[in-house]
């Protein structure tokens, strides 16, 4: 007995859905506010895929474009924090910001999303993290900051491909930094879902 078109259409859609679910996760390049966010990044010899990307907006001013790279797709903050292997987040500036302002904004984001006991574990790393922005000076439009988590080494930061600051060894601190955008009080409520693979 032949299938009716509507029943055939439903079966086709179901089959397509099952096929899509069975395929490996494939990251695709995206353009955000004129910035081409690469689909992959190589960290510690492993190829990471773009988990999500979006714009950090302050009031109505677009400040930077951010991308998050992981070994496997994650759609929740907990999944990102527990992710195994190397990671990267990248920030490409859409306007000039002084290193002091940038560092203060990051510190405020960490403070808002961690408690005093958690921060007390990372006093030295917080200090070293803040010094990075003081030493870098202004971040100009088009400049890119990357922060890589390298298992067995720590958090390695670079500006326009040049390593800056010291290596910060604690994965807990790397997660504390990620909470600036993925914590319960993210600096931008629209950027958080974008980094988790939602719409930019």
From TrEMBL:
Residues 29-197 form the Chalcone isomerase domain. It comes from the Bacteria. InterPro entries: Chalcone_isomerase, Chalcone_isomerase_3-sand, Chalcone_isomerase_sf. The keyword Metal-binding does not apply. The keyword Isomerase applies. One of its GO terms (molecular function) is isomerase activity. Residues 1-29 form the signal peptide. Keywords: Isomerase, Signal. PANTHER family: FATTY-ACID-BINDING PROTEIN 3, CHLOROPLASTIC. This is Chalcone isomerase family protein.
